[in-house]
């Protein structure tokens, strides 16, 4: 027997429609790549997203066509997200930080028909345009006054396109399983692979993102997603903000701590989200200027592990709660988040801080388990670590164009490639990427734990740990450090510092000082490049 409720396809245009009708005056503030600031509200976003859908139709985009964006977080980017996906096309968010060869590969692989780009990326695209096989139209996201002189054939001006439309448009209804957006993984090995989200997966993900134990976004929230809209759905914040009618602050190309902080105070940001690197810079800025965080109450940290010292400083010094989250492009991305549950809320503060350093509890809709190499599920004892598997309605089934074949095992589990354990309270901890874990004498050393402990040293700006061949132990850890400006640090001093923070046999066998560490396009330390840099390194003879 079937239920007798309305069959209402879960489409992302519903979020915008809801915001337009119920929160029309909630503000959206956007920093522009061409300079200056733009302010409007959900009524304005709704009007212009409809005009964007009309303009895309006029340019020849139809259902299922890929409309690529290469843009910072901005109101125009929001209009395309809703405009392109809302009309039934697929919004492909291209990460501009990728290497030109990867950009060519991704745009050709996605078969993007229209490429809509910020003025900042025009020179980059001009260099590769001759290799882009499917792009028929380039649209530059500026007004007429800022339209650059460009070699991009027939380049169109976004504001002119929008102005020519009436906005008299109704969002079409279609199957909720229709593709909505496309995002490529940063591809630490091999070619990047596409993750194709559906309207349904994005819709369900948003409902859970909104809940109090997840992002906790409400109509009174002012949210600033510093995490870019071209990386893993900006953690779902653009949809969640519209779904809640929250004030939305978009930082455009601005990432320096001083200006971010000024915007945060001026706009009264209450929730913000980004990778740890951004917050390292922000904390340094706060320390140097003696300022506070204004109305900020929650900072979401994810993408890489949030170091204990960072969580402690935000909470104890600035009164800002840290919500440590885990996810990946393949998981839309929210998988787990570290809000407190009943079991831990009365534990001593330092124990709770240890738990906050973990990557949190699975959100509703995501199932998780940890398995050993033979596929046996490991106990939830906080110690047994193995491969982290996940499944749920916003977890990938297969990559775009079936690259790499089936992405799931027989029980529908997706292998995340992360090594982790789950504790008795239900909190999951990432101990490493499967390929970064250091195998020493048959035991595993977590490079992440060592790195997190090392960055707590006052002379260390950034740290990475890689396994180096060792004739007796197979691999031993090498600690690679970028010191703070003007500071130095020695191997002996570092091991002394780490002594009470990790097991003694984990202590790095050597320390190398570098001026900078290689990063991937999504801001993570690139262990692959670091291993290549140190491929001829061998430990000093004892
Ligand atoms: P991406 O698809 O680029 O977002 O990368 C996903 C990967 O980032 C995950 O598989 C993890 O290895 C890593 N990651 C994400 N969040 C965290 C976190 N909070 N702590 C440690 N690693 C994380």
Task: Name its key features.
542 residues; alpha/beta; GMP Synthetase, Chain A, domain 3; nine-stranded mixed beta sheet; binds adenosine monophosphate
Can you describe this structure in just a few lines?
The protein contains 15 helices and 25 strands. It is α/β, with parallel strands linked by helices and 542 residues long.
Give a structural overview.
α2 (42-58) crosses α3 (75-87) and α9 packs across α10. The protein starts with 12 loop residues before the first helix and ends in a 9-residue tail after the last helix. It has 15 helices and 25 strands. It has a domain at 436-533: GMP Synthetase, Chain A, domain 3. The chain has helices at 13-22, 42-58, 75-87, 100-110, 122-128, 158-163, 199-210, 237-244, 257-267, 276-289, 308-318, 349-356, 447-454, 491-498, 527-533; strands at residues 27-31, 37-41, 66-70, 90-93, 112-117, 137-140, 156-157, 179-184, 194-198, 222-225, 247-250, 271-274, 298-301, 321-327, 334-337, 361-362, 367-371, 386-391, 414-422, 428-433, 438-440, 443-445, 460-470, 474-483, 510-513. 28% of the residues lie in helices and 24% in strands. The mean pLDDT is 95. It is α/β, with parallel strands linked by helices. The chain is globular. The longest helix is centred in the first third of the chain and has 17 residues, at 42-58. The strands form five sheets. Strands 2-1-11-10-12-13-14-15-16 form a nine-stranded mixed β-sheet, with helices on both faces. β24 (474-483), α14 (491-498) and β25 form a beta-alpha-beta unit. Bound molecules: adenosine monophosphate (AMP). Adenosine monophosphate is lined by residues 185-186, 232, 302-305, 324-329, 333, 359, 416, 418, 430, 433, 522.
């Amino acid at each position: 027997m079937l239920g007798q409720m309305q069959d209402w396809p879960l489409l992302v245009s519903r979020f915008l429609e809801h915001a337009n009708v119920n929160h029309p005056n909630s503000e959206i503030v956007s920093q522009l790549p061409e300079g200056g600031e733009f302010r409007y509200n959900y009524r304005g976003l709704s009007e212009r997203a409809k005009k964007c859908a009309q303009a895309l139709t006029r340019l020849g985009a139809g259902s299922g066509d890929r409309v690529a964006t290469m843009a910072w977080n901005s109101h125009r980017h929001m209009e395309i997200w809703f405009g392109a996906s809302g009309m039934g096309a697929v919004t492909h968010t291209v990460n501009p930080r990728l290497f030109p060869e990867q950009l060519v590969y991704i745009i050709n692989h996605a078969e993007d028909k229209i490429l809509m780009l910020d003025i900042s990326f025009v020179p980059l695209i001009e260099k590769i345009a001759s290799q882009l096989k499917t792009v028929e139209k380039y649209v530059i996201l500026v007004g007429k006054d800022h339209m650059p002189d460009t070699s991009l054939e027939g380049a169109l001006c976004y504001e002119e396109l929008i102005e020519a439309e009436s906005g008299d448009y109704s969002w079409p209804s279609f199957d909720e399983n229709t593709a909505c957006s496309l995002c490529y993984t940063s591809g630490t090995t091999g070619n990047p692979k596409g993750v194709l989200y559906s309207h349904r997966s994005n819709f369900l993900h948003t409902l859970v993102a909104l809940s109090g134990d997840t992002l906790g976004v409400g109509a009174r929230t002012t949210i600033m997603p510093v995490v870019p809209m071209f990386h893993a759905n900006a953690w779902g914040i653009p949809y969640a903000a519209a779904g809640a009618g929250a004030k939305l602050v978009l930082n455009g190309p601005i990432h320096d701590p001083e200006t971010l902080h000024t915007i945060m105070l001026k706009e009264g940001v209450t929730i913000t989200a980004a990778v740890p690197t951004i917050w390292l810079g922000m904390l340094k800025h706060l320390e140097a200027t003696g300022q506070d965080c204004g109305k900020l109450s929650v900072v979401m940290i994810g993408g890489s592990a949030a170091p204990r010292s960072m969580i402690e400083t935000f909470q104890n010094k600035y009164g800002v709660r840290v919500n440590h989250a885990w996810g990946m492009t393949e998981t839309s991305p929210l998988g787990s988040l570290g809000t407190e549950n009943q079991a831990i809320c009365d534990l001593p503060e330092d124990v709770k801080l240890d738990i906050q350093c973990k990557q949190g509890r699975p959100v509703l809709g995501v199932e998780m388990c940890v398995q050993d190499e033979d596929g046996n599920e490991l106990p939830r004892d906080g110690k047994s670590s193995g491969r982290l598997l996940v499944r749920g309605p916003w977890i990938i089934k297969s990559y775009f164009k079936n690259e790499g074949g089936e992405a799931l095992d027989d029980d529908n589990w997706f292998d995340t490639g992360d090594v982790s354990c789950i504790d008795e309270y239900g909190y999951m901890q990432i101990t490493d990427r499967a390929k970064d874990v250091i195998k020493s004498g048959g035991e595993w050393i977590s490079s992440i734990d060592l790195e997190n402990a090392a960055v707590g040293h006052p002379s260390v700006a950034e740290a990475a740990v890689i396994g180096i061949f060792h004739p007796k132990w197979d691999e031993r850890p090498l600690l690679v450090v970028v010191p703070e400006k003007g500071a130095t640090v020695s191997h002996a001093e570092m091991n002394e510092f780490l002594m009470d923070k990790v097991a003694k046999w984990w202590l790095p066998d050597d320390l190398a000082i570098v001026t900078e560490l290689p990063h991937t396009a999504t801001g993570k330390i690139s262990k692959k490049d670091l291993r290549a840099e140190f491929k001829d390194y061998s430990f000093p003879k004892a």
